[in-house]
Design brief:
This protein is an alpha+beta fold. The chain contains 11 helices and 13 strands. It folds into 2 domains: 233 residues, Hsp33 domain (3-Layer(bab) Sandwich), CATH 3.55.30.10; 58 residues, CBS domain Like (Alpha-Beta Complex), CATH 3.90.1280. The longest helix has 20 residues.
Length: 307
């Protein structure tokens, strides 16, 4: 199969969890082309915003797959000083969804001809990671945005908030409205990993730098063999990846109930119903005034239970 055929043939997005050097290094390597294309189609994003959202989703889905519980999820937000505003991605295992305040920002290319993701996101700000472990309190980690290019920001988060030095590569290759290739790589030396193994990984790091272009020539499994030759690469697990939104009418009803009786009564008094939209998939949910009255009764019952 030649390069053009590889770029045109859709493949299932998938995460490979890989072991190197008999358990000394953890690697996650994935392709997310179809997932990023789905996000771009939903939001009508410009190329630079598609690249930003794609990188964020790819990094977030890696965190999501690390979580073991069925009900666990992770939310990553980037609040930079760029024109895209806040970017948010949510992942539960291999499913991920994302949105941005303004996904239609247009910026000129950088001097090297690449998309200026850093300027779209912003070069300063905060990266927040919220892990919902199904407990009463969520885990919250924060770190500074160091570049806005997102891969470096994830690497900084792992080092600062999780005390885990990591190499992160994230890439999205875009042509117009089409996502040609997208994917990511995470390498984490585990405690006790010898310095000579870390040195080997650093020497090989230039091969990982432009991962989306590398994926146009070989699939993740082949890249795993090529990049980590001599380091005993072993694929431990494969996880399908897909864009999926979890919104529903029931969730929107709960959101309305959570507003409280005062705000619900204001909506009822306006007698125009209420329409709620999902930021992740743009689905719209309309509630009539009568349905709002029923929700008000639920809110009242909830309030009595809490008193």
């Amino acid at each position: 199969m030649n390069q053009k055929e590889r770029m045109e043939t859709p493949a299932r997005d998938e995460m490979l969890q890989i072991d190197l050097c008999s358990g000394q290094v953890r690697v996650m390597l994935c392709e997310t082309t179809n997932t990023v294309q789905r996000c771009a189609d939903i939001h009508g994003s410009t190329p630079v915003c598609t690249a930003a959202l794609g990188r964020l989703m790819t990094g977030t889905v890696m965190l999501g797959i690390m979580m073991k519980g069925e009900e666990e999820s992770v939310t990553v937000s980037l609040k930079g000083d760029g024109p895209m505003g806040t970017l948010i991605a949510v992942a539960d295992h291999g499913f991920v969804r994302a949105c941005a305040d303004d996904p239609r920002v247009e910026l000129p290319l950088r001097e090297d001809g690449k998309l200026d993701v850093g300027s779209a996101v912003g070069h300063t700000g905060r990266m927040s990671v919220i892990k919902d472990l199904g407990l009463k309190k969520n885990y919250i980690g924060q770190s500074e945005i160091v570049s806005g290019e997102i891969a470096m920001d994830f690497a900084n988060y792992f080092t600062v908030s999780e005390q885990q030095p990591s190499l992160v590569a994230l890439g999205v290759l875009v042509s117009g409205n089409s996502v040609l290739k997208a994917g990511g790589l995470l390498i984490q030396p585990l405690p006790g990993c010898p310095d000579e193994i870390i040195d080997q990984l650093e020497l090989r790091s230039p091969m990982f730098a432009d991962i989306s272009r590398e994926l146009t020539f070989a699939d993740p499994e082949q890249l795993c063999r090529d990049w980590f030759r001599g380091m005993e690469p072993r694929i431990l697990e494969r996880t399908p990846i897909a864009y999926r939104c979890t919104c529903s009418r029931d969730r929107m009803e709960r959101a309305l109930v959570s507003l409280g009786r005062k705000d619900l009564q204001s909506l009822i008094d306006e007698d125009q119903g209420a329409e709620l939209g999902c930021h992740f998939c743009h689905s719209q949910y309309f509630f009539t005034t009568e349905e709002l009255r029923q929700l008000l009764e639920r809110a009242a019952d909830k309030g009595e239970e809490q008193e």
